[in-house]
Design brief:
heterodimer; A: 591 residues; alpha/beta; Beta-Lactamase; Alpha-Beta Plaits; 4 domains; eight-stranded mixed β-barrel; five-stranded antiparallel sheet; rod-shaped; B: 278 residues; Rossmann fold; seven-stranded mixed sheet; globular
């Protein structure tokens, strides 16, 4: 290497001044001590103007803050900064985008620290980055808007639009989110089920907007009065719940009492002062694992009891207390099993001709051999069977069993032969389009003469839908089956109707027979019924005959048939067979 | 000596990247860094205190090596969120009679914290504080900036978005005069998540903590720099007037970060104040 190859001081000066970027030297505070020609030219200032002033003073205020808060401490601690994006204000007032890198040499001895700065023009790059940044910002904003929309959608799904309270789903979500109050471990959770009294009347008389206003007011009052740790929700219509942790049922019912008081404050709606009241059911969790659904259901039951007991009050659900809904469902299940598994029995009560004293038939009466409650009469389960529709299979079974028994006695001969079998039909069976087919099939199965079958229909069932009843009865009559009106006198049938129906027999209700001889009114009714039956050409039958005096009176009145404990109680088939054999073959049943 | 603080102590320790050094039995000095940097900013000041004091440093959430995932825009939408963090750190470490040294915006975080839990702090050292950066023409308050200036800052932050995005920041080719720094420190120092920096800038420069000053009864030192763009002399006077039991000291150091540019002078002022008032 020769001396001529070494760059001399002039070369370095040329490199400094004519470098393709701006070079500056400053002190720690940014005061410019030296600046190259490139920067002087690029910035438009004179060298004189630049030296002594601070580098930051060439930047807009935003960049000055950035330089003070980011660059100076970084230079002090780290010794360098690189490619900081700033703007330099040109002497013409315009701004020039630039990138700034710098490194700092700490001072030593009496020498102050120096900072060496390079400034690149970065116009193109800045434009490009600006576009990218605005794209990033737009994406962030659109993402934020999407998230916001999603949040709003979820809020709508979980809240009731009218009152802003959580709905059923929202309540569940809210409770799931709070540890210790979720479906698990709800040891001290209690539910207050609040239902406004006579809310429908407000809607009907003042209109729905007034009703809505009332609901909003109730929601506000509940939300304000409920403890902080609890949740208030609107389940539907005028049903609200307050769910939260309580020390026990006492605290929950105290809140219920307080809420009743708060809700009874009159409010002004459309210039009218409306006084509301509510009924509240309270249920407190029994232990671990009792879920919200179950608690709400129990609180609902208690709320109904509060309504039944006169409204504007609270009731606490006692889980030990019997629950009518559950009882009913359990009983229905048992009855269904009973029908399928042969727990039903048919007992037979003799029907005696009052003129001859002979037994001319029996009435089939169903019994339920209940697994725990013993032998139950129809009064214990027929209504339930009727309401649930179980009465159809039940009725079909009773008819089939009775005809099977008729067939059996017919084969045995003696007292059981030639009897007329009376079987009860319920209202529901009467409206069953399959009824006639069912009866016909049952008769054919045992090859029983239809005239040996008497179907009894209560007066009430007959009057429920007289036209349909007429149709069914006519079809049955066409089969050759005999028909009776049961419990006569308890309904409101008129003679006109009675004449319309193809019936063969009128059974006078036992309540009138009871009063025979002691109550002149009853005697008159029974007498009239008998006369009425005869007037339209049918038999009159007395039920529930218990004394020989009643028998005498009925006979005197011209009543055709009678049944009751005086002759025999309903008996199982073998016992009845014995009774028939004892009283049969012309042996009068009447002493 | 650096004490080991594991995150097992408290999630707060991990969240704010709390580090402890100095004398384990010494009085506690808690350092709160300001806007734009992290706890390493105190590096040049610490040697003046480490022989006597127990030094507790931390990063604001979003800065340095804090847990960036803990950055919750709602929580940190005001300085209260930062004050809550500071008090949680005190609580987690059971710090008592704390000398709280706070720079820039954190000086106001310190004011809020001291108003909340006065019993926790024995002294406040407020370096270049400002309770409001924007001028308030209505009552003649001079903060030094206009609303437009702050918009300009946000634009500057945007300009540096890509440079600051993690792993993108190139290092200068040489830093011959800073041999004491490790590569790892260099690359992490003042690393900033650009989105958080922008949000923090907005919160910082639009904050108005003036009403809080009168709620503080703790002894305090105000360190006022020369030629500080962010905290002009009027602001220092304002803080001094409204902060009961405060002492105002004017430093020769220029700029906004005297603990970086003039650590010896800054330490001297703090030590003088602490010895004079004990």
């Amino acid at each position: 290497m020769t001396g001529s190859d070494e760059p001399d001081r002039a070369d370095f000066e040329a490199l400094f001044h004519q470098a393709p970027c701006g070079y500056l030297i400053t002190d720690d505070a940014g005061h410019i001590t030296a600046v190259n020609d490139t920067f002087v030219r690029w910035s438009g200032y004179t060298r004189h103007r630049l030296v002594g002033s601070t580098l930051q003073s060439l930047m807009p205020v935003g960049d000055q803050i950035l330089y003070s808060t980011h660059c100076i401490p970084q230079l002090g601690i780290n010794g360098s900064v690189s490619e900081i994006a700033v703007e330099i204000i040109h002497a013409d007032g315009g701004r020039r985008a630039a990138l700034l890198s710098a490194s700092r040499s700490p001072g030593s001895g009496g020498q102050p620290a120096i900072v060496r700065v390079i400034v690149f023009s970065a116009h193109e790059r800045r434009m490009y980055e600006k576009e990218l940044v605005s794209a990033v910002r737009a994406a962030e904003e659109s993402e934020a808007r999407r998230a916001e929309a999603e949040k709003e959608l979820q809020r709508l799904a979980l809240h009731d639009a009218l009152t802003g309270l959580p709905n059923r789903a929202g309540l569940k979500a809210k409770l799931d989110a709070v540890p210790g109050t979720g479906a698990q471990g709800s040891g001290r959770l209690a539910v207050l089920f609040i239902d406004l009294d006579h809310f429908k009347a407000v809607n009907d008389s003042l209109g729905h907007s007034a009703g809505d206003e009332l609901l909003v007011s109730v929601a506000e009052r509940l939300a304000k009065a409920a403890p902080d740790a609890s949740a208030v929700a609107r389940l539907s219509g005028d049903e609200f719940v307050v769910v939260g942790p309580f020390t026990g049922p006492g605290e929950a019912t105290a809140l219920a009492a307080e809420l009743l008081e708060i809700l009874s404050t009159p409010i002004q709606i459309e210039d009218l002062e409306i006084v509301t009241s509510a009924s509240i059911g309270v249920a407190a969790a029994q232990g671990e694992g009792e879920g919200l659904e179950e608690l709400v259901r129990r609180a609902d039951i208690a709320m109904y009891r509060a309504k039944e007991l006169g409204r504007s009050r609270w009731e606490l659900h006692e889980p030990a207390a019997s629950d009518p809904t559950v009882d009913r469902l359990r009983a229905l299940g048992e009855l269904r099993r009973g029908i399928n598994e042969g727990a039903l029995r048919v007992h037979y009560q003799p029907r005696v001709d009052l003129r001859t004293g002979r037994t001319i038939g029996v009435e089939a009466l169903v019994r339920w051999q209940h697994p725990t409650r013993g032998l139950l009469p129809p009064s214990e389960f027929i209504t339930m069977a009727e309401e649930s529709g179980l009465v159809r299979p039940l009725g079909a079974w009773v008819l089939g069993e009775t005809l099977r028994q008729a067939d059996s006695w017919r084969r045995e001969g003696r007292g059981g032969a030639g009897l007329e079998f009376a079987v009860n039909l319920s209202a529901r069976q009467l409206s069953d389009p399959e009824l006639v087919t069912m009866v016909e099939g049952a008769l054919q199965l045992r090859d029983i003469d239809p005239s040996h079958l008497l179907l009894e229909i209560t007066e009430t069932a007959l009057m429920a839908d007289p036209d349909a009843a007429l149709e069914s009865l006519t079809a049955l009559r066409n089969l050759g089956v005999n028909l009776a009106v049961d419990d006569f006198g308890t309904g409101y049938s008129s003679l006109t109707y009675l004449k319309k129906f193809p019936i063969d027999e009128l059974k006078i209700d036992r309540s009138f027979i009871n009063g025979l001889g002691s109550d002149s009114g009853d005697s008159a009714i029974v007498g009239s019924c008998i006369d009425l039956a005869h007037a339209v050409g049918i038999r009159a039958v007395a039920e529930g005959v218990e004394t020989s005096g009643q028998v005498q009176t009925l006979r005197a009145m011209g009543c055709d048939l009678a049944q009751g404990y005086h002759f025999a109680r309903p008996l199982p088939a073998p016992a009845l067979k014995e009774w028939l054999d004892a009283h049969g073959d012309g042996e009068p049943a009447i002493a | 000596m650096v004490e080991t603080v594991t995150s097992a102590v408290s999630p707060v320790i991990r969240r704010n990247n709390v580090t402890i050094s100095g004398q384990a039995d010494g009085p506690v000095m808690l350092f709160a860094h300001g806007y734009g940097c992290d706890q390493d900013m105190w590096r040049r000041l610490l040697p003046y205190f480490s022989d006597t004091y127990r030094l507790v440093l931390f990063d604001n959430v979003g800065a340095g090596r804090s847990d960036v995932d803990a950055y919750d825009r709602d929580k940190y939408a005001s300085l209260d969120g930062y004050a809550a963090d500071l008090l949680e750190i005190c609580d987690a470490l059971e710090l008592e009679d704390v000398i709280l040294v706070a720079h820039s915006v954190s000086a106001m975080v310190a004011v809020i914290a001291a108003a909340r839990e006065p019993q926790r702090f024995s002294r406040l050292v407020l370096v270049a504080p400002s309770p409001r950066y924007i001028n308030d023409l209505a009552d003649g308050y001079v903060g030094g900036f206009s609303q437009e200036d702050i918009e300009g800052l946000l634009a500057s932050l945007d300009s540096n978005y890509f440079a600051w995005a993690e792993a993108l920041a190139p290092m200068a080719m040489g830093h011959p005069e800073a041999p004491e720094l490790s590569e790892e420190l260099r690359s992490s120092f003042c690393r900033t998540n650009p989105s958080i920096a922008r949000h923090f800038a907005r919160v910082t420069f639009l904050s108005d903590t003036r009403p809080m000053l009168e709620q503080v009864g703790t002894d305090s030192l105000i360190l006022q720099c020369s030629d500080d763009l962010l905290a002009p002399p009027e602001v220092g006077s304002y803080v001094h007037e409204h902060l009961e039991r405060s002492t105002l000291v004017q430093l020769q150091a220029t700029g906004h970060c005297p603990h970086v540019s003039a650590p010896e002078d800054t330490a001297r002022a703090i030590l003088d104040y602490l010895s004079a008032s004990t």
